[in-house]
Amino acid sequence: MTAEPAAAAGAQDGDVLRVEHVSKRFGAVTALTDVNLHLAKGEVLALLGDNGAGKSTLLKILCGFQPPDTGRIVLNGEEVTLKSVDHARELGIDAVYQDLALINQLSVYHNMYLNREKVRWPFLSNRVMRREAREHLEAMGVNIPSVDVQVARLSGGQRQAIAVARSVYSDAKILLLDEPLAAMGVKEAAMILDLVRDLKEHGQVSVIIIAHNYGQVLEVCDRVNLLQQGQITFDKKSSETSVVELTNLVVAEYRAALEARHRSA
Amino acid sequence: MSETAEQRANVVGPPPGGPAKRGDPLAVLRKTGGLFIRQREATIFVVAVLLLVYFSTKSSAFYGQSNVSNLLSGIAAPFIIIAIGEVLLLICGEIDLSVGFVVVFAPFLMHYLIDFYGVPVIPAILISLLLGLVVGWVNGFLTVTLGLPSFITTLGTGFILLGLTLTTSNAEPVNVPAAAQSIGKFFGSQNGGYAWSAIIWAVILVAIFHVVLTRTRWGLHTVAVGGNLLGARESGISVARIKYGSFMICGLMGAIVGLQTAFYDNTIDPSAGGYPAMFYGVTAAVIGGTAMLGGSGTIIGAFLGAIVLATLQDGFLITGVSANPLDIYIGGAILIAMIANVQLARRQAAGRG
Ligand SMILES: Nc1ncnc2c1ncn2[C@@H]1O[C@H](COP(=O)(O)OP(=O)(O)OP(=O)(O)O)[C@@H](O)[C@H]1O
Ligand SMILES: [Mg+2]
Which residue has a Cα nearest atom 2 of ligand 1? Predict the structure, then answer.
């Protein structure tokens, strides 16, 4: 493989996030073997890789959902142990999960404020949440019938838009997006990409975006990392790579694995 | 998808009944059916009123004050209070089969403390209520922390509680401790004004937990945990806290009903409570529109469901009709309610809900 980066190669002092030697196993499955990754302030990093490469596993470690087995996470130069999703949120990290983490039975606005509800103790401030949810969705250009409907009644793309809006408006400094374009129509995908571009222009928010459509992410990201078999095997500026190169890399890996299997058979 | 922002801002809720094409009789039928299913509380309220009216015309004794207070305090209140606990548990995807045995054990504990250990009345009552919380905590520990299905957990703890009660009491009923009588009437009694205390407690608890469920973070998170366990966890909601809490509330409700029943009947009876108490609570919840699948349910619905159950039970008794077919009606009511639940879920899945 090309460009096998050493631990935190290219890392700088200005990095908001550094991941060093992170590994994670699930029983017999090793999802991550030795991941090293860095993210600068205001940077948009695309995390690519095949199905089962470990992208979501890494994201769930970075947002405090699950702990790594080994390795360090360094936030703004300080090593941190993310104790929980809430803890990560306090530190300014927020994620859109691949499964979206929406509650079908709850309204759009309750989902948008899930676990950070506006409260006038002890009661929920439903009116405030409803109004702000509506404002946020309108600002984003999301089209839904009403913020009062249950998310069960929304389309796949609408649901995804709600999940993305929830994170984008959470005031997070580091946004982790797990396939935010998966269920999106052309227009809606453009809307999400515009949103990421917007964030980039303001320069305050750093983004890691996982996607399978290389063409789409290359449009917005600054840098590309490729995750293969639990390791980052490729790290280049997006201006220095192309859809063709990335595709070839992934296919080459697949061919090599196939050949190895044939040989051993 | 084609609505403009202004239009959207005006939409307050989903239009009732969903889209029904005009002039199509099937669509109209579907629309009314949908209305019925959605307005569960209204439907069950109408059923309750119809039953009350029916039995009133059958027997003048039915609406006599002593019968009304007995219907509400003696029969409905225990159903209602247990149903509150079960609704919370069912919403977050669990069930408590042991609560009926907390009902049995709590008053015995009070009796032992007062009569055998000389504990003053108020601490004895508080410790008996605490028992409910402790049993709930144990149920939570076995279910959440050790990962047993709550059906099994509470089956086990229920048997243990029953066994404890029977062993310690020699399976004999006892009198309510004399010292507790004066305070007891505030929990439940058949005499004069205090004949209403049990139902007043029930209504207060309904009001509190209705607000908790619909207006607080706790309630929202309860729905979230039952609706999408993984999603709730990913959102950082402490699933364990919600489930432990719901088990403990349910246990507490059992203890309240146990004391109430003892004071109301003026005896502490090891054959009171048990599975019937629990099953009536669950039945009230289900009739009131709580799905067993988690993620939805209402306290008000369960309250009305309990009133319907109590009215059926009392009505059969007072009109002198044989009570034997009563269970047929209750079974029918459970099935109809469940069919409505499933249909509602289907409609929502189909986006017509
Ligand atoms: N909770 C879990 N328990 C057991 N195995 C898991 C768990 N989560 C992930 N895995 C395994 O870890 C590996 C990596 O999974 P992961 O979800 O991170 O892949 P991914 O790169 O996100 O794939 P995709 O593109 O399909 O989303 C897979 O082999 C998967 O089966
Ligand atoms: Mg994934």
Answer: A26
